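Entry 14. Ran structure prediction on the chain below.
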Amino acid sequence: MDGEALAGHKKTPAAKSLILFQDESGVSERPPVRRTWLRREKLGVGLCLQLEKLSISAALGYRWDGKRSRLWFQTQSGSYNDQRLIAFVRDLKKHLRGKRRF
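Output, structure tokens:
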């Protein structure tokens, strides 16, 4: 294969795009459970707390030439589902529209 058959160094809009990686994760506020030993006469005192689950969706973006990267994230209580993840990607797309590619 000779060098003329390859595309070379074309500067097309696709070559100056961002590469985005997106993922989501959940974090619980629940403390780790520990077991204690008490005498049978003593009763343990329980503490009832309203504990929530916090979900985080993040996107890591790399510039087309690999020189810079950027992180965008969104948090919410509860869990992410497909509609909320699609909304996150749409919000990110709106945020990046018309902006200079860092």
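The chain has a mean pLDDT of 77. Will compare against last week's run tomorrow.
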